[in-house]
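Quick one: co-fold with LYQTPAFP.
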Amino acid sequence: MGITDMQEAFYYRECAAAHENSPLGLHYAMFLPTINKQATPEQKKKWLPLAENYKMIGTYAQTELGHGTFIRGLETTATYDPKTKEFILDSPTLTSKKYWPGCLGKTSNHCVVMAQLYTQGKSHGPHMFMVQIRSMEDHSVLPGIEVGVIGNKFGYGTNDNGFLSFDKLRIPRENMLMRYSQVGRIPRENMLMRYSQVSRIPRENMLMRYSQVHEDGTYVKPQNAKLAYGSMVLIRSSIVSDAARGLAQACVISIRYSAVRRQTEAYPGGEEPQILDYQTQQYRLFPLLASAYSLQLAGKYVFNTYLEVNDQIEKGNLESMPELHALSAGLKAFSTYEASAGIEVCRICCGGHGYSQASGLPKIYVDVVPGCTYEGENTVMMLQTARYLMKCYSRAKQGQKLPGFVQYIGQNLNKKSCMSEEVALGCLVMAYEHRAARLVEAAAMRMQSLIQGGKKQHEAWNGSSVQLFWAAKAHCHLFCVKNFVDAIQAKSLSSKTVTVMKSVCQLYGVHGILENLGEFMQDGFFSGEQVGYLQRKMLALFENIRPNAVALVDAFDYPDMVLGSCLGRYDGQVYQALYDYAKSAPMNQTEIHSTYYKHLKPLINPETTSDAMQFAKL
Ligand SMILES: CC/C=C\C/C=C\C/C=C\C/C=C\CCC(=O)SCCNC(=O)CCNC(=O)[C@H](O)C(C)(C)COP(=O)(O)OP(=O)(O)OC[C@H]1O[C@@H](n2cnc3c(N)ncnc32)[C@H](O)[C@@H]1OP(=O)(O)O
Ligand SMILES: Cc1cc2nc3c(=O)[nH]c(=O)nc-3n(C[C@H](O)[C@H](O)[C@H](O)COP(=O)(O)OP(=O)(O)OC[C@H]3O[C@@H](n4cnc5c(N)ncnc54)[C@H](O)[C@@H]3O)c2cc1C
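Sure, here it is.
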């Protein structure tokens, strides 16, 4: 395709069969990027041409029957044998079988495997290994390997998520994913070597960019063990835009349909209005439209941040890893929660037709909702963000300067809202900063009191984890609101566009407060009168956005073939499209379905059952 932007390439491949989840999805999304990010130049030279030309088709095999979240608990082992200079991969228990990796069951002939590395009798934690699982000649399964599909799932029907286990499978030492290697002088491109030990080793022994195993089994650990988690951070940073895209497409379908659908007399004898004119329909759909715009902006920000930080990591500067992890983990969770819930509301707003596959909405939902689970289960990801926020809080209390998007932490909480009838964007941001700062402090205080009460650190953590979750969610929400406001205020948009987009941004902020009012009012930050301002502003914004609602979804510019929806067609010919869809249903290709003779006819006309039995033998 010649498209270099990973997310754009992902979208255009999607266009061929939108939300069908390609059986090569993991090859593109995780297998290739893992080789790119975790392999040495020599390994890339060997594997990339094969993988880019589909000789090697691969997936990312990390999750096991017994462990998905807790990577350090994975049971698959890779034990180094210095005599043969090989790793022995083994699945020692039932729960160590790899389970869930996409494209694993029948498609892939290779995979990058996350396994516990053992050398010289010691465990060194999870590392990545390149493993061939099927012949590149006839696709037969290689000896020492058991692989297959895991069966039907909630969705993802076109992806052969699979299981995989190893029975003392030997792979060459060079198959441990290593990055950067050097003999003697450190080549310029290996600047990272300042982060790992320099030693003269035979050229064929790839030193790890992040860690290395010498031929005698000596292990040199990386500067940061979490560098091996890099592929997950990349995908988390990409999922935000993916979730935003799913929500935006659902908004296109439901808002266009709501402009076509007319239902119920507005008054006795009156004409049936467009359902988009019902305030309750606007209340459910317009905030989702605003959320789609907000998440698209957040997705751009987090992916650009990933690219910047990853560039620094490639140059050996790891100091921004914690921020990137906290941002990508939290926004991945926040965006997939918001998008999944929003797509379901869009479906419900389309009534019965929303429940039809013809609407395109079920497919979008089952494609986006697993994002709450894969690449880091959402609650776990939110708690990872909370872990970072707690560190920021203690640094703030020690008077340390905090990075940009957490500078609100530790602020004075005694102030009140500046909210007036106008509902200024600045007052909205202040409200979200106050809420997040208060929840971060409350979680920290809770932890402190538990520890002072004698609880151990891990007991205090678990005993505060609901409040930690609230704090992380508020932090992500603040990020999305502030990022949206910054985009509106920074953009050199035409005055008309700014006016429209300012209303959309205001609605996003106002609606978020009204839907989480307790967290904003618990300490009296808002007065009752100010809440009234917000409620009236929300209703006014519905009226303000209504004339531009269809234009705002058209602006996403998703072609009909991507939406795959009879309800969301650009030409609005919904009913003809639904009728054509029904007529084309396979069961309508014969007037009487074959099952009539076998199952119905004996009931309706028992006397002629013998005919039925004749037919059934056909
Ligand atoms: C191009 C694509 C476009 C769009 C994408 C669209 C769709 C998606 C495409 C494909 C997806 C399809 C399938 C999904 C594939 C998968 O699901 S792959 C498997 C995913 N699995 C996971 O994500 C597992 C989640 N678990 C973890 O990440 C870790 O176990 C954990 C982070 C929860 C915990 O790790 P631990 O090693 O136990 O660490 P800890 O003790 O909690 O923390 C120790 C310190 O390490 C820091 N840290 C943890 N992770 C990272 C990281 N990734 N980067 C940087 N730092 C990290 C942590 O913050 C701690 O630091 P402290 O300073 O607080 O000590
Ligand atoms: C469609 C799909 C595709 C996938 N593709 C792949 C793939 O290609 N490769 C791959 O390796 N994996 C893949 N996975 C697996 C996925 O990465 C894991 O399912 C995910 O990481 C969650 O882990 P788990 O299933 O063990 O859930 P668990 O961790 O068992 O989660 C169950 C519950 O326990 C809670 N919980 C767990 N730990 C904690 C904690 N520390 N604190 C608080 N609560 C906790 C969670 O919040 C959750 O509510 C895929 C999964 C799906 C659904």
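If it helps, Residues 53 and 172 are 23 Å apart (CA to CA).
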